[in-house]
Write a structure and sequence with these properties.
Length: 207
């Protein structure tokens, strides 16, 4: 920890990547259409499980997920408007930024390249087994991040937002997406936000 006297330096932000900083699921819907012939509207993707929301069969899903983590796919993701600009401002104010993703760890090089290309600054980049997907004992678990002392958490995955709302004092902001409309996290104090302008209303460091 750097010993700034300003309280802003004590603020630690947790920022998810997919569907908070990157328009990932819109791109996944296009991928499912182009490669698998699935025609699903983004607004109709009202469950978190992509195999369900995109109607991908058991035999298609592994191939789809592999395509979804290809370097070119990840590098081509559009940024969510206002995200990079806000994180630059927060970090210049002295806050600490943790980018926390549930992507597989082998997508780290492509994720780093994307963050750099988008001009997104951060102090940590954590690959976390948010959904208990990988059963890899070497992977970071959410429990291992409990001592990070996050001040604000920005997530779109309702189960993940719920975990932080229940287990920390952090302010939890739930990024409004079709798959989190029925939210348990909200019932436990998470605040629904619709864009980065609204995130700033709740999370801007004191100036
Ligand atoms: Mg996400």
């Amino acid at each position: 920890m750097i010993g700034h006297s300003s309280p802003v330096a004590d603020l630690h932000f947790y920022v998810d990547v997919d569907d908070v900083l990157a328009e990932t699921t819109r791109a996944l819907a296009r991928l499912a259409q182009e490669r698998f012939g699935k025609r699903v509207r983004f607004s109709e993707m009202n469950v978190f499980d992509l195999s369900v929301s995109l109607g991908l069969g058991e035999e298609e899903f592994p191939e789809f997920m592999a395509a979804a983590h290809e370097r070119e796919f990840l590098l081509g993701l559009a940024p969510v408007s206002g995200g990079a600009r806000t994180l630059v401002r927060w970090r210049e104010a002295g806050a600490k930024i943790s980018v926390v993703t549930g992507r597989p760890p082998d997508s780290r090089p492509a994720t780093l390249a994307w963050l750099e290309r988008q001009g997104i600054p951060f102090d940590r980049l954590d690959f976390v087994d948010k959904y208990a997907r990988y059963s890899d004992p070497k992977m970071t678990t959410p429990q291992q991040l409990l001592d990070q002392g996050y001040h604000t958490i920005i997530e779109d995955a309702d189960a993940t937002a719920l975990y932080w709302a229940q287990n920390t004092d952090a302010r939890v902001l739930l990024y409004d997406r079709p798959w989190n409309q029925a939210s348990e996290a909200e019932a436990h104090g998470a605040i629904r936000v619709h864009d980065w302008a609204e995130i700033c209303e709740f999370a801007d460091p004191p100036s």
